[in-house]
Design a protein that fits this description.
This protein is mainly alpha-helical. The protein has 6 helices and 5 strands; from the N terminus they run E-H-H-E-H-H-E-H-H-E-E. The relative contact order is 0.12.
């Protein structure tokens, strides 16, 4: 099993560099041949969303589609599928950033009752409070 860096995931999603995209495709084939998985961590997911938003100016809908597409990539495994789905569903309907919801899900998993934040949009949602 290997972990994927943000730039590898982005090359697959965006295909903006043909050499790097082809490298990722070869990696995917090799992983498939070797029955090996590539893990996409929470950090990588958060960075992918941030880069899509800030660098590529992707809309929220485009980001959601990209995140959903990652689940269908043969050989790619989301490190925590339940946390990912909960964060993605909250991102789809909420006002916060994907990373905020992923943080909340991580906090809940380790036993936290809530996340302290000054983000006004998040203060209206369950699991966040103003310190």
């Amino acid at each position: 099993m290997i972990a994927l860096d943000t730039n590898v995931v982005l090359r697959l999603l965006i295909e903006d560099d043909s050499d790097q995209f082809n490298c990722v495709k070869r990696l995917m084939l090799k992983l498939d041949e070797d029955f090996e998985d590539a893990v996409i961590t929470d950090n990588t997911l958060s960075e992918v969303v941030w880069v899509l938003d800030t660098t590529y100016k992707a809309s929220k809908d485009e980001i959601i589609i990209a995140l959903q597409a990652l689940e269908g990539v043969l050989g790619f495994t989301i490190a925590s599928p339940t946390r990912f789905h909960n964060a993605l569903n909250a991102y789809i309907t909420g006002k916060g950033d994907f990373a905020d919801y992923l943080l909340r899900e991580q906090a809940i998993e380790v036993g936290c009752r809530a996340v302290a934040t000054f983000d006004k949009a998040l203060l209206k949602e369950e699991g966040f409070f103003k310190p």
